[in-house]
Amino acid sequence: MFGGPERVLEQAIAALETAEVDVFAVSATIRSTAIGPSRRCYANAAAILSTNLSPPKLLAMLQSVETHFGRNRRGQHWQARTLDLDILMWSGGIWTSNRPALGIPHYAMRERGFVLGPACEIAPDWRDPLSNLSIRQLFHRLNQPKPILPA
Questions:
Q1: Assigned domain for 93 exists
Q2: Which domain holds residue 23?
Q3: How many domains does the chain have?
Q4: Is residue 23 in a domain?
Q5: Measured between alpha carbons, how far is 90 from 99 in angstroms, rounded to an integer?
Q6: Of 81, 112, 128, 141, which one is the catalytic site residue?
Q7: 83, 92, 110, 122: most buried, per Cβ within 10 A?
């Protein structure tokens, strides 16, 4: 319907450009395998958006774009999906909410190379307000070889 993962992502980023949102920068797209039972390959990118929308209103807009591209939020938690748009960080720092779908910085961004790699490309010096580490530092820490401990 919309094409492969890269094409869906490209069209979704274009759909974010509205009167309320400007797409300031977009990383290159990378491919990754799914987390969970899905066997689908995913396209991943990061974007810097400029908006006056509050985090909950921005999340609602992102979810509307996801729905437009065929995302079904009912069913299994880690099911295959056509599109997953997340808010990683926000210039306002930390955002907490009683809605589990919205916590900023994103709860799992520090453990996901497919998130940090593209984010590092466009915002390497942005700082995680929880760790005070830059995106670049988080990405390099995630990709450092793990020491082998003697048995």
A1: yes
A2: 5-72+79-106
A3: 1
A4: yes
A5: 17
A6: 81
A7: 83
Instruction: Give pTM, 2 decimals.
Output: 0.82
**In-domain check, residue 62:** yes
Which of 7, 31, 40, 84 is the catalytic position? 84
35: left (phi over 0), alpha (psi -120 to 50) or beta: beta
DSSP, residue by residue, 92-111: T--B--SSTT--BS-TTGGG
| Within-domain flag for 50 | yes
Taking only the tens place, the pLDDT of each residue in 32-74 is 877 666 667 788 999 999 999 999 999 999 999 988 887 665 6
Residue found by looking up tokens 């990378």 in the block: 30
| Residue with tokens 């591209």, as numbered in its chain | 69
Active site residue 71: yes
Q: Of 86, 99, 127, 141, which one is the catalytic site residue?
A: 86
User: Is residue 16 scored above 90 in pLDDT?
Assistant: yes
Q: Does 128 qualify as catalytic in the annotation?
A: no
Has 81 been annotated as catalytic?
yes
Half-sphere exposure (CA, 13 Å, Cβ side) for 137?
8
Where residue 84 sits, what CATH number does that domain have?
3.30.70.560
pLDDT of amino acid 56: 92
Q: Does the annotation count 73 as an active-site position?
A: no
